[in-house]
Amino acid sequence: MLSRQALQNEALTGEAASEDE
Length: 21
Known about the structure:
Helices cover about 80% and strands about 0% of the residues. It is mainly α. The longest helix is centred in the middle third of the chain and has 17 residues, at about 5-20. It starts with a helix and ends with a helix.
């Protein structure tokens, strides 16, 4: 289970991550 910080980080960088991923 991912930590809240990890989930928040993904939510914030989700847009940028989706592009890189």
